[in-house]
Amino acid sequence: MSAISPTMLQHYHDHGYVVVPKLIAEQHLTTWVDRLAEIVEGRVPPSPGMLVMKDVMVAKGAVNPGSKMEAIAKIQDFESDPVLDSYTTHPSILECVETIVGKDVQTIHTMLINKPPHVDGRHPLHQDLLYFPFRPADKIVASWTALEPVTRENGCLVVLPDTHRGELLKHGNPEWDNLNAGYFGAKGVDASNRVHLEMNPGDTVFFHPILIHGSGRNRTEGFRRAISAHYSAVDVEWAWATEGAFGERRYRIVSGDKKGQFWSGERFKEGGLDPRTLLSSSEDLKSVESVKKRHQ
Ligand SMILES: O=C(O)CCC(=O)C(=O)O
User: Fold this and answer.
1) For ligand 1, is residue 226 a contact (CB within 6 Å)?
2) What does the similarity note say (predicted)?
């Protein structure tokens, strides 16, 4: 049975997000953190298609990390790693996802965000729909699970409630000195109503892809780690005119009759949206290209 009650579902529809306390048991969280360590410390090779991304301040030499773990900003696209993928297919997560977007879902993105101490590590306020070719937006949802206590001090998620009812905004580099590649900020955002989501290990927030959100700096000596995936219903349409800056990707169906198959809808809609028009400058495009290159 889904951990999202009708009242919680109403909260999601009204405000664009809902936090489900203690959704994931501690033993799973430990497994995923241990796997991160194995990959980062070179004891297990990154699985095919996985991007292990250094923090920009470490990459620039502005910070000298005290350990390999302190150097990493995130792991992206971990679905070919069976240990991390057990998050993507965790029954409690899938039940909640289906409660929100309907039966039969596929994964469209996965990541483990590390946020080490001593680096900037902030994620500007943005909308995830910027990165996804599928529509309608209501059939997409993010899950984000705290792997350790997540507080204002260590850079918890920040959301702007109700903004999921707005439009997808233009995004760009907010001109911070140390912004990780591929991190963009939505333009013209009023952040005065922001809510900080402090969470305990295993707590999971589900949020809408138009909800404006981001995260703060880690001001502690510890890590702030979270594991996250995006899902959509299988019956979505491709809205982009191009394959987009993040390249060709296969979308794996994780529930329903077609479980294990890949999304087979038509790509590249004629007259559709060119996702590059959502970025405000060619410099921003270069930043996306650099992520793409490292991913190949
Ligand atoms: O975990 C974080 O710090 C921010 C994650 C996020 O907002 C994202 O990747 O879209």
Assistant:
1) yes
2) Belongs to the PhyH family.
- Confidence band of 92 (pLDDT split at 50, 70, 90): very high
Atom of ligand 1 nearest to the CA of 111: 9
CA angle 14, 16, 17 (to 5 degrees): 110
Q: Is 68 inside any structural domain?
A: yes
Instruction: Evaluate: CB of 24 within 6 angstroms of ligand 1.
Output: no
Ranges of beta strands (E only) in the chain are: 17-20, 51-54, 72-76, 105-113, 123-126, 134-135, 140-146, 157-160, 171-172, 185-186, 195-197, 204-207, 212-215, 226-233, 237-238
CA distance readout (Å), 169 to 29, 135, 209, 278? 34, 15, 12, 7
pTM passes above 0.90? yes
Cβ of 120 less than 6 Å from ligand 1: no
Q: Is the CB of 218 under 6 A from ligand 1?
A: no
* Tens-digit pLDDT profile for residues 154-193: 999 999 999 999 999 999 988 888 888 888 999 999 999 9
- What is the residue range of 61's domain? 6-295
> Does the C-beta of 128 come closer than 6 Å to ligand 1?
yes
Q: How far is the CA of 123 from the centre of ligand 1 (A)?
A: 6
pLDDT tens track for 186-210: 999 999 999 999 999 999 999 999 9
Closest ligand 1 atom to Cα of 215: 3
Residue 1 lies in a domain: no
Question: Domain for residue 137, yes or no?
Answer: yes
**CA separation for the pair 255, 234 (Å, rounded):** 9
Does 14 reside within a domain? yes
How many separate domains does the chain show?
1
